[in-house]
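Please fill in the sequence for the structure shown.

STRUCTURE ENCODING:
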């Protein structure tokens, strides 16, 4: 319990009475995600390839991935992640 007491001043706790606020932005929580046509290839590679090669093939770290990760982390640290996510979805016409 002392660890929690030590960090309580630096942690921002928010209480939300309406969980639909979060669910509205996450379609996967209320609707099944379509099956990926490459699913069988993915699991075949998972069983046969070395792990590092498998990760590089299926989850490459491209500039786009690094930029996306940086922007998400920055928005989260600034406390504007949910608002910025909604804004981007609205611009892109998703949801």
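FILLED IN BY: designer on duty
SEQUENCE:
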């Amino acid at each position: 319990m002392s660890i929690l007491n030590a960090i309580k001043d630096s942690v921002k706790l928010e209480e939300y009475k309406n969980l639909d606020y979060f669910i509205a932005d996450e379609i996967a929580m209320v609707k099944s995600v379509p099956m990926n046509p490459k699913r069988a290839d993915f699991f075949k590679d998972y069983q046969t390839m070395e792990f590092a090669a498998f990760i590089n093939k299926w989850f490459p770290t491209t500039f786009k991935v690094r930029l996306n990760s940086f922007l998400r982390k920055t928005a989260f640290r600034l406390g504007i992640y949910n608002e910025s996510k909604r804004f981007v979805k609205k611009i892109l016409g998703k949801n």
